[in-house]
Amino acid sequence: MNMNLLFVALIPLMGAALTAWVSRFGRMGSAWTAGGVTLLALLCLLPSAAAPFDGEVIVQRWPWIPGAGLDLAFRLDGLGLLFALMILGIGLLVILYARYYLSEHDCMGRFYAYLLLFMGSMLGIVLAENLILLLIFWEMTSLSSFLLISYWRGREDARTGARMALTVTGLGGLAMLGGFLLLGEIAGSYDLSVILTMGDVIRAHPLYTPMLVLILLGAFTKSAQFPFHFWLPHAMAAPTPVSAYLHSATLVKAGVFLLARLFPVLSGTPEWSWLVGGAGLTTLLIGAWFALFKHDLKGLLAYSTISHLGLITLLFGIGTPLAAVAGVFHIINHATFKASLFMAAGIIDHECGTRDMRRVNGLWRFMPYTGTLAMVAAASMAGVPLFNGFLSKEMFFAETATFFEEHAWGWLLALAVVIAGMLAVAYSLRFIHDVFFNGEPVDLPRTPHEPPFWMKAPVAVLVAICLLVGTLPAYTVAPLLQAASAGVLQAPLPGYDLAIWHGLGLPVLMSILALTGGLLIYAARRPLFALAARLEGRLDARAIYDWALGRTLDFAGAVTRRLDTGSLQRMLLFFMLSALTLGAIGFIGGGSSLTGPRVLLPVDGVSILIALVLVAVAIGTLILHRQRLTALIVMGALGLLIALIFVKFSAPDLALTQLTVEVVTIVLLLLALYFLPQQSPAESSRARRIRDLGVATLAGGGTAALTWAILSRPFDSISGYFLANSVPGGGGANVVNVILVDFRGFDTLGEITVLALAGLGIYAMLRELRLPGPTHDDAGRPWNWDAHPTIMAALARLLLPLALLVSVFIFLRGHNLPGGGFIAGLVTAVALIMQYLTNGVEWTHRRLSHDLHPLIGWGLLIGTLTGLASLIFGYPFLTSTFTHVHWPVVGEFELASAIAFDLGVYLVVVGATLLILVHLGLMHGASHPKQGIQQESR
Amino acid sequence: MNHLVIAPLLLPLLTGTLLLLLRRVLPLNVRRWLSLAAVTAQVVLAALLLLAVSNGDILVYALGNWPAPYGIVLVADRLSAWMLLITALLAWFALLHAIWGTDPGNRHFHPLFQLQLFGLSGAFLTGDLFNLFVFFEILLLASYGLLLHGGGAVRTRAGLHFVALNLAGSTLFLFAAGTFYGTLGTLNMADLAVRIAATPPDNLSLVRAAGLLLFGVFALKAALVPLHLWLPAAYSATSAPVAALFAIMTKVGVYALLRVGTLIFGGEAGPVAHLYAPWLLPLALATLMLGVLGALSVTDLRRQIAYLVVVSVGLLLTAFSLGTQAGIAAGLYYLAHTTFAAAAFFLLADSIARGRGERLDRLHPGPPLAQAGLVGGLFFITAVLIAGLPPLSGFLGKFLVLRAALAEPVWPWVMGLVLTSSLLVVVALARSGSLLFFRAQGVAAAPPVTAGALLPVAGLLALCLALTLQAGPLVRFTQATADQLLHPQGYIQAVLQPIADRETQHQ
């Protein structure tokens, strides 16, 4: 399949990387490469270039995301061809020009790489068949123009201008994405071939207006239409070749290209006429007005560009086929004369070192050739006969004249465009007169002279086109204009005549008025300048932009500072409130009653007693929470009471676990408390405490209500299966243990991993932490350094073997009776902790390896390997097996694979618990090194 | 039974354990390569698993040979395999960056890293709600250990906040799971789906409350507004490879919301069908906007990236909240993109911070980087990706989400807010890039960044490029995945059929 259109866009994009790379080997290499790449792209386009002249449309497609209607689809019709030729042709001239423009300090490779990136994106826009693809290239032009405008990155104005251009055109691009999505939804396809045939359907669709507004936002921001025009003058901070390229044939033309592209689909409604025509007319006038008063040469050209873009937009807004043809024609003409004018301005800047027209005067003497070229281009800009600008402006006047005859208020339009025409003549005149005549140069940094020949050559080429088109339109531009207009209209062309003289009529009258008016305005410029100086800053869209951006940033800062205070309490508050809201709305929305239908059990005295004590203890903890040690002891009672509840409801396993966990936790907290003040100060305000009390009460009440709702309903679960299969399937009579090591052994494997991770995590934290420990208590009494009373130490040493024996016993019987690896591990840990506490860390470490990591590692490994063993026999991971063996003396004994797994659990529990406690303890020692040594030596 | 399903769990678990045991035996370099080799194998395993389920098969692995709903099952479907592959690829590059130089800061970096992978893989594969809780715990503790990696007061503080808040979340998870078990009598997710559809009116309130509490837990993990505040602090405080790996952490919450939202509270859940829908969309859009406001207002790059992760969570959940095939498919594509892009950004921010001397990553003009061109270029590409600008995967993801939203009546909201947020992200990143690269003055304050630090960034960007170029087949895959999620009958049958068969045999 023929894919040359894809390559036309792709070659410059790929060439950008090549150019950047080549620049390592010398400055000129990248210029030559960029030129070569552009020529290659042009060559790639040529095989298809004939087709549009025969009225053919070439569509080439490569699937990308067919599921979302996005393909790499390209199309070439007259409009696309015209733009592609302008982009490549003027691109070549700009590459040549820039090679002489850029100074030694400027990185050539970077410049040409950005330029090619931009060129490829631009070609993509004009050749895209798929709207989303068009948008992709559209945004890429925003990005690459950001890079180009900020090319002189050290300059503040370049950075600001680039960011402004990116923000404004980015805004438009995103809006356009929205518009294209809607258009695709309406038409059922993103393909232009489909969309362009569906104008009537689209215009009649209820979503037409929002879609139109969104797409126009994209076109207007790109083409610098009022009120988005302000970014364009700031983009003049770019090197002049960039301005010549971006603001003549490419970037800003993308917007009017889009208007032309979608003209058959979107135009023909009052919304279109008002929005497009209104924006165009306003921009035409405002641009022309400001252009006259800019002292900066490039500023004048920038505003004149805005004005001419307004003119083209207005033509499309008028909406007649003839107006569209005029619009296309003016696109061509504006590209040629504006590119040459920018280049001329660049030469002047380059040679004089300034572009201020109050200083750059009388250059005719120094650079007559450049002056001649600039004069021709400026005459074309002003619309002087025999130059190309005159032809399209004449067509423009003719269209407004027709409008004048057909509409009651049409004279207003005609008047406005004549005024704009006068202003255009005036600023063109100023450009020539101020720069080349008007006295002597004022204090120029450099002595001006003619630039090198090859710097003038691109200007000369463009100026020659201006002249040729202006004098012999029928033999030069006519076929291309015809093909391009056919591409825009997608319908038979209206009759038009490219002759220079159409006979006397309103258009000619308007032209004469504009020319003479312009001369008069320029002659009377002094009072006008005074007026403009007084109006300065009154009508500044940039101020609005700055204001909006500033407000947005302020707002963002205010919101973020208000929310993100870095307070844990606040995060927890949000979490509690969210949980409460979710739970409450969830429950209330279900419409069920709080109390279920289950018959309640009779209440006995013991339960009531435990419950009451629990409540009392909870309240006690709350009241005492500022005295940390006391509160901790009271909290310990809470844990013991819960263990009692488990006993009461016949859950000895849980009771044992709870008991040992409670002991270990309290020891751990006691060790940690050492580093904290004994009393917590009251830091919260009263109101805040009341708020927190309310939230806590609600959370507690909510939990209680939820529990009540569950418990008061009949319970039907899968637990029957566990009871039935525990002995035959799991080989254990203790269902809790069988669930832990077999039915849900994988959970346990996960939980011991959690425990191991907790150990490692706390180890990591404590190793990095250096906390100063207190030497006195609150009352100023020094701590008692007799940390290891002899009687207690002796007792603990005696208890150790007993405790270990108990843990072995608990471990072994675990599968059938209350016990198991977890509880046994905790018991062992408690027994060893006692040694640490009573005899000191050093003493214990002399007798016990103090590297506890292997213990954790082995535990995990044993647990995992036990699970893996079943894979050998073709069963899934963690499948258990058991057998009964007869041992002498012991008798019948059950051997279950689950015991090995439980051993893993045991080891991890011992290892992780001790790791945490030992390192907390070690930190104690580290916080009082002196006393620690004294203690040991004693 | 296909052991391929459990292999991505056992591999990191065993590797982590071995690395812990061999800590003193093997020199650091050997342990590094062991760790990297294991993650490489993990990538292969994930790819094989994806291949195995790409035809629509759902692989069920009954642990301990106990059939569901009694035992724990692992279930591999397209979604799980997709998440696994993303995780493994991400982990590979994060580890590569760590090996380049930050792993000696924590003795246990490699075991913790592997166990974190174990937790991630488990969360994506498990078919049991309580087992999901267990894996959440593993993830929490492993991340806590990793978060402290490198030490310092800021990290310790961030770690404390992270762990305290998430423990509160775990408690809520237990409440929710307990309520489910108390009313429905099961914890297997497929079984829950079956039983929940037949909830009697009297139990409806409980089931709804439990479901929404679970929503709260997942929202906390996913960093959904107003539970997002932990993320910027934690992500910006930790070391670069950990922050990069954390790019997948919020996605665990997102995954859980998607899984539970389609399987248990999907369209066939009778009285509780689409329980999450009315909550998810407004909160997701709020997340999007608050994330952007945060990104606009912060003063250092890493915190800005962290807020951009919040933004991506917003967009991701916006896509999922649409509940349609197109929406979910768009979200799944975007998920892969945002994970890789955010990770690349965190790794790159580290290189920038190292290259700027005392200025670190503060958004304030400072000395230029030694390799401003290269690092700046990478920054530009990453920013384009993150902001969702054309032509890379970020744009494609956003386009797919918006396209999917058009089919829903809420589209003006989605489109308006998504496009506004995109613009503000562009503004924020243009400002950062301009400050960091354009306004640099003076001489470079630090030696050039080594290639080892930039290679993982380039690798992750290359993954995004692959996502862009291969978008066609990938979108086809995510569409099939979304289809599978919206028709949970296949999942339920695959999980519960074995026990039904066994029972018929017994009769």
UniProtKB/TrEMBL annotation, chain A:
Location within or outside the cell: Cell membrane; Membrane
InterPro entries in alphabetical order: CPA3_Na-H_Antiporter_A (IPR050616), MnhB (IPR007182), MrpA_C/MbhD (IPR025383), MrpA_C/MbhE (IPR046806), ND/Mrp_TM (IPR001750), Proton_antipo_N (IPR001516)
GO biological process: monoatomic ion transport
Boundaries of every Na+/H+ antiporter MnhB subunit-related protein domain copy: 791-914
Residues annotated as transmembrane: 6-23, 30-53, 79-99, 111-128, 164-187, 207-232, 244-266, 272-293, 369-388, 408-432, 453-478, 498-524, 571-594, 606-624, 631-649, 655-677, 693-711, 748-766, 791-812, 818-837, 858-878, 898-922
Keywords: Antiport, Cell membrane, Ion transport, Membrane, Transmembrane, Transmembrane helix, Transport
Boundaries of every NADH-Ubiquinone oxidoreductase (complex I) chain 5 N-terminal domain copy: 64-112
Domain NADH:quinone oxidoreductase/Mrp antiporter transmembrane as annotated: residue spans: 128-401
MrpA C-terminal/MbhD domain: residues covered: 613-678
Topology of this chain in the membrane: Multi-pass membrane protein
Residue span, MrpA C-terminal/MbhE domain: 688-770
Domain of life: Bacteria
Signal sequence annotation: none
Keyword Transmembrane helix: yes
A GO molecular-function descriptor: antiporter activity
Record's protein name: Multisubunit potassium/proton antiporter PhaA subunit /multisubunit potassium/proton antiporter PhaB subunit
Taxonomic source organism: Thiobaca trueperi
Automatic annotation (TrEMBL), chain B:
GO molecular function: NADH dehydrogenase (ubiquinone) activity
Keywords assigned: Cell membrane, Membrane, Transmembrane, Transmembrane helix
Principal place of residence: membrane
Annotated ranges, domain NADH:quinone oxidoreductase/Mrp antiporter transmembrane: 127-421
Protein's GO biological process: ATP synthesis coupled electron transport
Protein localization: Cell membrane; Membrane
Domain of life, source organism: Bacteria
Database matches in InterPro entries: CPA3_Na-H_Antiporter_D, NADH_UbQ_OxRdtase, ND/Mrp_TM
GO cellular component: plasma membrane
Transmembrane segments: 6-26, 33-52, 58-75, 82-100, 120-147, 159-181, 209-231, 243-267, 279-298, 305-322, 328-348, 369-390, 410-430, 442-469
Membrane protein topology class: Multi-pass membrane protein
The keyword Transmembrane helix appears for this protein: yes
NCBIfam families referenced in this protein's UniProt entry, alphabetically: PRK12666.1
Family: Belongs to the CPA3 antiporters (TC 2.A.63) subunit D family.
Protein name (Swiss-Prot/TrEMBL): Multisubunit potassium/proton antiporter PhaD subunit
Originating species: Thiobaca trueperi
